[in-house]
């Protein structure tokens, strides 16, 4: 009993429960339709690559997961959100593809420049976007949403200008590797794994995590305690820009083209939602990277579930909204308090 | 920014009018274009710019409305204020046009609705010129029926954006034909949002749900079809002329037809962006006070892979592909 209690009081307990709940919908549906109850969880190797719905969740959730890493740091440090990430992803896609194809070319089967130049230039531009956001928020004290609103609208627009408002296709096999497969493993999963490892080590060995949380809890106190608050917030946005670039890299490689109109569209909202679903406060301060990642994969699990259930496209947004609503309500403080109070009453009754 | 742009556009237009004052015999036409979201749209814009030239007796004012309904209404209002001779609208949204159409009518300016459907009383606009997504769906269905004969069809459909008139029309038209065959079954139909990523994701899921149970995939635009191909490649499913799955797409963009020529798509149903000449014909008739059609449908063709004979589609050749305008 006490073990269970300890478990339910873990910070990540509810986010994990939420994710399991979403996956349970599939089990119920499969049982009801007479399919194998746990077919959602089957992982096999097909055509030489990993295959299964769980793999789809991990693979397709990569972009949101990468964005969630950056968003968590930004939310924690500045008690605000970076709403430009989706747009910055599109900008990556435009910069990278136009660099590789050459300006004005819409379809190419040979690189105009080495692949690595395109990727690095794209990432560099995204880091620069992060720096612009960071400068506005940290040094000019502009509210994060307003500051990042600028690139939210400009990022995609600049991308469209670069691409001449056209799709730019890079039909070279090596370009598709990052969004495709390495051996039997979908590469995006590997990219996320690397991002998480690097970020975790970075937070651990540089005390950046402590700095960020201190600044997020109380910016002034942190400054008086000797932290350079502004610089830490600035750095948080730079990291977020870098993450947006990496997410854009995966998304672009998946479709081997710059679809500037659609890449990363509305993805900033998914990223913010992941942070919230992971049990993190959007008011800044303490954060859990693992929570945000669970949140990100929960969102993707909802999407994958909708496809698996064959929800009517017109009703899909409603379905998603209802599931998110339930998850958010489960994690709301008054609801938690209610169940805690009930458990306490029950304990008193049993004791009496 | 947008306001500044608008002011700049109006300013430029005013100057333009002042300069061409002596060329008063030009027919002044305003075109409120949807945006520039796809290759198709770019081809459509270029077609208007090439048709409504001064040599042909027009001065064209083209406003790109960036897929923003409010911006489009504003553009039309500006046209009215400038007192243009004709207004062409490719409605971004089908509803919400009554007021501004009434304003145009009060100002005595004929309005021609182009390309897309509009949700307004017929008396509020002068003429309509466009394609019929419903017919495109029917063509796809008829072609499939002809090719399959008595064989059964287990169909997976990747729809376009929810609510888009092209998606609704293509779904309904295809459904109509599917209903005529007892052994056709649409297993599932999901939205891929007209994007490659959407098509890829939906197809990945379809493969898991209906592995080995489907033999037809219908994608409502070329981009979705590219995504579906990627997903089927990854799962080792063959498609196209030599494959197990018949792949049907709509749009017939250059890349889409290239895939048809390569035998990867079995059929690509066209949605024709070359519409300006037809609009110009209507305007000329109104100008000469001749009778004109209230609604003109632009013919959509369909192209199938080389080696397939059909009465509903043309066999694609390198020659046809090279000669196409987009």
Structure description:
The complex is a heterodimer of chains A (352) and B (326). Chain A is mostly helical and 352 residues long. Chain A has one domain (50-329): ABC transporter involved in vitamin B12 uptake, BtuC (Orthogonal Bundle), CATH 1.10.3470. Chain A is 69% helix and 5% strand. Chain A has 15 helices and 7 strands. Chain A has helices at residues 2-8, 13-32, 53-60, 62-78, 85-101, 115-139, 144-162, 187-206, 208-217, 219-224, 229-254, 267-277, 289-309, 316-331, 333-351, and strands at residues 44-46, 49-51, 107-108, 168-170, 181-182, 185-186, 257-258. The longest helix of chain A is centred in the last third of the chain and has 26 residues, at 229-254. Chain A is globular. By secondary structure, chain B is an alpha/beta fold. Chain B folds into 2 domains: 2-125, Rossmann fold; 133-272 and 302-323, 3-Layer(aba) Sandwich (Rossmann fold), CATH 3.40.50.2300. In chain B, the strands form 2 sheets. Chain B has a 7-stranded mixed sheet, with helices on both faces. In chain B, strand 9, helix 9 and strand 10 form a beta-alpha-beta unit. In chain B, helix 7 (196-209) packs across helix 8 (222-235). In chain B, 48% of the residues are buried. Chains A and B meet through helix 3 and helix 13 of A and strand 7, helix 7 and helix 8 of B. Chain A: One of its GO terms (molecular function) is transmembrane transporter activity.
């Amino acid at each position: 009993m006490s073990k269970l209690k300890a478990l339910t009081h873990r910070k990540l307990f509810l986010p994990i429960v939420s994710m399991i709940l979403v996956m349970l919908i599939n089990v119920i549906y499969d049982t009801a339709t007479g399919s194998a109850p746990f077919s959602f969880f089957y992982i096999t190797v097909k055509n030489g690559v990993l295959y299964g719905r769980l793999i789809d969740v991990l693979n397709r959730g990569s972009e949101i997961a990468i964005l969630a890493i950056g968003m968590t740091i930004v939310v924690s440090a500045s008690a605000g959100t970076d709403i430009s990430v989706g747009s910055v992803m599109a900008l990556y896609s435009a910069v990278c593809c136009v660099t590789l194809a050459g300006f004005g070319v819409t379809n190419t089967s040979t690189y105009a420049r080495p692949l690595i130049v395109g990727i690095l230039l794209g990432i560099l531009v995204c880091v620069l976007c992060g720096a612009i956001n960071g400068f506005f928020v940290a040094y000019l004290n502009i509210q994060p949403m307003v500051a990042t609103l600028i690139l939210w609208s400009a990022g995609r627009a600049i991308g469209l200008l670069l691409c001449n408002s056209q799709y730019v296709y890079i039909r070279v096999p090596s370009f598709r590797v990052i969004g495709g497969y390495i051996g039997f493993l979908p590469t995006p999963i590997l990219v996320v794994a690397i991002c998480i490892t690097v970020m975790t080590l970075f937070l651990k060995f540089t005390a950046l995590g402590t700095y960020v949380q201190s600044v997020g809890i109380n910016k002034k106190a942190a400054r008086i305690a000797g932290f350079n608050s502004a610089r830490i917030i600035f750095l948080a946005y730079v990291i977020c820009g870098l993450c947006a670039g990496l997410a854009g890299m995966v998304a672009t490689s998946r479709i081997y083209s710059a679809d500037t109109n659609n890449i990363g569209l509305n993805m900033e909202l998914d990223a913010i939602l992941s942070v919230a679903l992971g049990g993190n406060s959007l008011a800044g301060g303490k954060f859990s990277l693992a929570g945000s990642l669970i949140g990100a994969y929960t969102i993707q699990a909802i999407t994958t579930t909708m496809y698996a259930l064959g929800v009517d496209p017109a009703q899909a947004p409603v379905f998603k909204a209802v599931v998110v609503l339930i998850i958010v309500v489960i994690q709301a403080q008054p609801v938690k308090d209610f169940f805690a109070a009930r458990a306490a009453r029950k304990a008193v009754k049993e004791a009496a | 920014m947008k306001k500044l742009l608008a002011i700049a556009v109006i300013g430029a237009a005013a100057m333009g009018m002042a300069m061409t004052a002596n060329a008063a015999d030009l027919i002044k036409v305003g075109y409120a274009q949807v945006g520039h979201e796809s290759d198709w749209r770019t081809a459509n814009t270029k077609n208007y710019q090439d048709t409504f030239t001064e040599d042909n007796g027009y001065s064209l004012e083209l406003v790109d409305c960036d897929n923003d309904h409010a911006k489009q209404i504003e553009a039309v209002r500006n046209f009215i204020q400038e007192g243009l001779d004709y207004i062409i609208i490719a409605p971004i949204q089908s509803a919400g046009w009554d007021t501004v159409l009434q304003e145009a009518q009060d100002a005595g300016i004929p309005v021609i609705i182009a390309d897309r459907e509009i949700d307004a009383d017929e008396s509020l606009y002068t003429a309509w010129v466009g394609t019929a997504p419903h017919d495109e769906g029917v063509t796809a269905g008829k072609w499939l029926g002809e090719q399959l004969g008595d064989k059964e069809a287990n169909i997976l459909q990747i729809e376009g954006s929810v609510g888009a008139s092209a998606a609704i029309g293509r779904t309904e038209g295809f459904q109509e034909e599917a209903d005529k065959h007892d052994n056709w079954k649409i297993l599932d139909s999901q939205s891929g949002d007209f994007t490659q990523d959407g098509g890829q994701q939906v197809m990945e899921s379809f493969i898991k749900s209906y592995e080995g149970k489907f033999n037809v995939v219908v994608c409502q635009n070329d981009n979705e079809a590219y995504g579906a191909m990627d997903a089927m490649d990854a799962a080792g499913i063959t498609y196209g002329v030599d494959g197990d799955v018949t792949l049907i797409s709509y749009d017939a963009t250059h890349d889409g037809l290239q895939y048809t020529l390569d035998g990867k798509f079995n059929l690509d149903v066209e949605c024709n962006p070359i519409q300006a000449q037809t609009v110009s014909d209507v305007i000329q008739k109104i100008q000469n006070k001749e009778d004109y059609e209230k609604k003109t449908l632009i013919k959509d063709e369909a192209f199938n892979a080389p080696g397939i004979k059909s009465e509903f589609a043309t066999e694609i050749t390198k020659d046809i592909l090279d000669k196409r305008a987009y």
